[in-house]
Amino acid sequence: MKQQTTDERPGIAAAIVVHEGRVLMVRRRVSEGQLSWQFPAGEVEPGEGREAAAVRETREETGLTVEAVKLLGERVHPKTGRLMSYTACQTLGGTAHVADTEELAELAWVTLGDMPEYVPYGLFEPVQDYLDGALSA
């Protein structure tokens, strides 16, 4: 495998999964800088769309079957420098659990009020706006 430069690394697709007034968060076994808790996410594979990658990563990491509802936005993540896309997803089936035990240590369903404990540096504005509406409904 050849060494990739930052510019050649695939983008990361994150799934924003809201269910019963909470959003799904996962804690990685290995933190990425300050990132410990985050949304289910992973690299977009060649030929794969961002929304499809978010759906696949959610299934691989948590065992949940979800469908993409809406692409919320993209940015270069300020902590990792990776291109990130964020997709709102709804659950179709399954029970969330740590399915990828090599990557994940635990998961949690988090309320809007508890979010600062999990993500103390704040969320990407389009994600925050979406959660403000989805979790206060």
Characterization of the model:
The protein is of the alpha+beta class and 137 residues long. The protein is built from three helices and seven strands. Strands 1, 2, 3, 4, 5, 6 and 7 form a seven-stranded mixed sheet that branches. Strand 5 and strand 6 form a beta hairpin. The longest helix is centred in the middle third of the chain and has 13 residues. It holds the Pfam family NUDIX. This is NUDIX hydrolase.
Tell me what the CATH architecture is. Answer: Alpha-Beta Complex
Structural class: alpha+beta
**Radius of gyration based on Cα positions:** 14 Å
Q: Specify the number of helices.
A: 3
Q: What is the number of strand segments? A: 7
Topology:
Elements: E1 12-19, E2 22-32, E3 35-38, E4 41-43, H1 50-62, E5 65-76, E6 83-93, E7 104-110, H2 115-118, H3 125-136
Parallel strand pairs: 1-6
Antiparallel strand pairs: 1-2, 1-4, 2-3, 2-7, 5-6
